[in-house]
Amino acid sequence: PFTYIHCAIDDYIPFCEYFIIPYLLWFLYIAVTVGYFLFFNENTTEFWSLILNLAIGMTLFLIVSYVYPNGLNIRPAEFTNDSVFTRMVQFLYRTDTPTNVLPSIHVYNSVAAFSAIHTCKNLQKHKGIRTGSFILTTLIILSTMFLKQHSIIDVCGAFLMAYAIHYLVYGYATDTEDKKITEKALG
């Protein structure tokens, strides 16, 4: 038996097939991020922090799915137009059932990738990469709702989990680095 996840706000979010692009870019985003930290970033602590962050999140997702089977019933029954984007969404719907959606792995892993990029010492001077990561993370998160793959509840659950696990994995180092940056800025 599934518990259906739904929030009144979900009804106000329109379906938009164009968000299939950032939704699918998620696969590349996560692979490139892990690949960068594995092959190009020499700081092994940052690599293992990313891997630990992803592993904890996905393990908790599996536990939640087992203990609290859940699903969605917010996908559109039919599409008003026929385009390459709607066909891509139809393919997605056929291959990815609307079950075990809470919390959203797309959202969680995107936030974890952004956290790794944002805290990476080698990328501090690369504002374009950091800004691009923020924009792509934001578009991926929005895509989960505009494609009706996730409820806003799934997104909020993923954010809460990402925040808590980020603090477990990066908390001390991030606090220490933030303090150093603040002290340096204040003179």
Characterise the protein shown here:
With 187 residues, the protein is mostly helical. Helices cover 68% and strands 2% of the residues. The chain is built from 6 helices and 2 strands, in the order βααβαααα. It has helices spanning 20-40, 44-67, 84-95, 105-119, 127-146, 152-186; strands spanning 3-4, 70-71. A two-stranded parallel ribbon has the order 1-2. α4 packs parallel to α6 (152-186). 34% of the residues are buried. The model has no long low-confidence stretch (mean pLDDT 90).
How do the helices and strands line up, and which of them pair or pack?
Layout: E1 3-4, H1 20-40, H2 44-67, E2 70-71, H3 84-95, H4 105-119, H5 127-146, H6 152-186
Parallel strand pairs: 1-2
Considering the chains and any ligands shown, give keywords for the structure:
mainly alpha, 2% strand, 187 residues, 6 helices
